[in-house]
Design brief:
The protein has about 160 residues and is an all-beta fold. The protein has two domains: about 60 residues, Cadherins (Immunoglobulin-like, Sandwich); about 100 residues, Immunoglobulin-like (Sandwich). Helix content is about 0%, strand content about 35%. The strands form five sheets. The protein has a three-stranded antiparallel sheet, with no helix packed on it. It comes from Echinops telfairi (Lesser hedgehog tenrec).
Length: about 160
């Protein structure tokens, strides 16, 4: 193949939009910020054509660009509010409620979706385990939820922080 007369092209839904190719070198560049939670992979076809005739100099080559996840999402509670009641005089250690939070990051990447719970205020009166299960007695408190390396105050879907 005469490289001086070669031109590189990209075909596919994201060609010319998200990805562009240097026509002289064949280097492919991303021209948008990639977000795995929106699109986890892109399918493209690379072509090498004659600059003058646009005829293929090689067979087209299909390839996939996979976007690797980074831990870029905060864990969020699954419900706007968690409500519970418990009978008066219930025994210490009685389960009251299970709160849950989720993370939009890739669950196959270690610790990207790990969610841990901690009681910041009132933990001398009750407990919470690693699954979000609260034990009696339940007093006013503030809860934080975090994923590995990312911390956020516990909040409902409307952004209200903690529990009062």
């Amino acid at each position: 193949m005469n490289r001086k007369n070669a031109k590189y092209l990209l075909k596919g839904e994201s060609a010319g939009k998200v990805f562009r190719v240097n026509a002289d070198t064949g280097d492919v560049y991303a021209f948008e910020r990639l977000d795995r939670e929106k699109v986890s992979e892109y399918h493209l076809v690379a072509l090498v054509v004659d600059k003058d005739t646009d005829k293929n100099l090689e067979s087209p080559s299909s390839f996939t660009i996979k976007v690797h996840d980074i831990n870029d999402n905060w864990p969020v509670f699954t419900h706007r509010l968690f409500n519970s009641s418990v009978p008066e005089m219930s025994a210490m250690g009685t389960s009251v409620i299970r709160v849950t939070a989720v993370d939009a990051d890739d669950p196959t990447v270690a610790d990207h979706t790990s969610v841990m719970y901690q009681i910041l205020k009132g933990d001398d009166h009750f407990g919470i385990d690693e699954s979000g299960l609260w034990d009696l007695p339940l007093w006013a408190c503030t809860t934080w939820v975090w994923g590995r390396g990312r911390h956020t105050p516990g909040s409902d879907a409307e952004g209200r922080l903690g529990w009062q």
